[in-house]
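Budget justification aside, the reviewers requested a transparent look at the raw inputs and outputs of the sequence design task funded under Objective 1. We therefore reproduce one unedited record. The lines immediately below are the C-alpha cells for a 294-residue chain.
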C-alpha cells in the first residue's frame, strides 16, 4: 500500500497538476517488475488485431490431424474441430491449439482486402475432413457431419462477437490463396452457416434481378474482376480463373469451373450490393468500351 502511495505522489508530481482529469487512483496502477503501469488514461482509436476468420479442412483423419497440428514445426491452427467432437456437460468440445493472441501458421502466402500474410490478422480454424478431389469433383471421404457444423457455428459466433468480425471477413483458405489451396471446398455448408448468422450470403431477390439484367447485358470480365477485388479477393492480375473458381467454391458450388457464367456474376454483384452498397455495384457496372462477356 505504501509503495502505491509513493508512486501516486510521483505521478501527480509529474503531471504537475492535481486538477488534471487523468485518473491516477491506485486502482489504475499495476506493479510490474521494476516499474509500474498506469491505465488511468485510455485511447479511443483502436481496433482488434484479429480481423479475419479462415476456415480449413485438414485433409487428414482425426489422429493425423491432431498429430500434425500439435507436433509439426511448420503448420498449426488456433482451433481444431474434431471428426467426432466430444461432449462436456452436454456441450460439444473444440480444441484450442494456439491462443487467440498468438499467431498460428495456417494461412501461408495469402491476400484478402488488400492485406497479405493473413496469419498476422486472422484466426485459423481447421476441421477434420478428408476433402475433395478437384479432378473428379467428388468428396474423398465423409461430408462434414452435423456435430462439426454445430460446433463450428457456436465457436465462430463467439469469435465474431468477441472481435467484431465482418461477415465478409469470414473466408475459406481457398479465398485467400486461390489456385494454391482448395479447402474447405465446394462441399462446405457456407449457406447453412449464413442461415445461422455466420458469414456473408447474397439475397435471392437481388440475384434474380441481376440474372434478368445480365441475361440481356452480361458484365465484362474487367467488371467481374473489379467486383471480385472489391469484395476482397487478391491475385486477380495473376490468375483470374483461379479466383473465380475460389468464389464459386464459396458461393456457387454447383459450378466450380473457373468460368464466369451469368449466375456466378449475379451472385457476385448481389454481394457487392449487400455489403458495399448499390452505388458501388452500379459504379462497377457503368458501361465501358470493353467487350462484354460471352
Ligand atoms: Zn487450409
Amino acid at each position: 500500500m505504501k509503495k502505491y502511495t509513493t508512486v501516486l505522489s510521483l505521478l501527480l508530481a509529474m503531471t504537475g497538476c492535481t486538477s488534471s482529469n487523468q485518473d491516477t487512483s491506485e486502482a489504475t496502477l499495476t506493479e510490474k517488475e521494476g516499474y509500474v503501469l498506469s491505465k488511468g488514461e485510455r485511447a479511443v482509436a483502436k481496433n482488434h488485431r484479429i480481423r479475419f476468420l479462415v476456415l480449413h479442412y485438414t485433409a487428414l483423419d482425426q489422429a493425423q490431424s491432431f498429430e500434425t497440428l500439435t507436433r509439426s514445426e511448420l503448420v498449426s491452427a488456433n482451433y481444431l474441430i474434431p471428426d467426432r467432437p466430444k461432449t462436456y456437460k452436454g456441450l460439444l468440445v473444440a480444441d484450442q491449439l494456439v491462443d487467440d493472441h498468438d499467431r498460428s501458421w495456417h494461412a501461408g502466402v495469402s491476400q484478402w482486402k488488400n492485406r497479405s500474410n493473413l496469419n498476422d490478422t486472422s484466426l485459423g480454424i481447421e476441421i477434420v475432413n478428408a476433402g475433395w478431389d478437384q479432378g473428379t469433383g467428388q468428396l474423398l471421404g465423409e461430408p462434414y457431419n452435423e456435430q462439426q457444423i454445430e460446433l463450428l457455428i457456436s465457436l465462430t459466433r463467439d469469435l465474431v462477437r468477441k472481435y467484431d468480425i465482418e461477415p465478409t471477413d469470414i473466408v475459406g483458405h481457398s479465398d485467400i490463396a486461390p489456385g494454391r489451396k482448395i479447402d474447405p471446398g465446394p462441399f462446405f455448408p457456407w449457406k447453412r452457416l449464413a442461415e445461422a448468422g455466420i458469414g456473408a450470403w447474397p439475397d435471392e431477390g437481388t440475384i434474380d434481378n441481376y440474372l434478368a439484367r445480365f441475361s440481356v447485358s452480361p458484365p465484362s470480365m474487367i467488371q467481374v474482376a473489379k467486383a471480385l477485388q472489391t469484395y476482397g479477393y487478391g491475385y486477380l492480375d495473376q490468375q483470374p480463373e483461379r479466383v473465380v473458381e475460389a468464389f464459386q467454391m464459396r458461393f456457387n458450388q454447383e459450378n466450380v469451373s473457373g468460368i464466369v457464367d451469368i449466375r456466378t456474376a449475379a451472385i457476385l454483384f448481389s454481394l457487392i450490393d449487400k455489403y458495399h452498397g448499390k452505388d458501388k455495384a452500379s459504379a462497377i457496372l457503368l458501361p465501358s468500351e470493353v467487350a462484354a462477356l460471352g
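The chain has three domains: 2-38, 52-195, 204-284. The domain at 52-195 is CATH 3.40.80.10 (Lysozyme-like). Computational costs for records of this kind are itemized in the attached budget.
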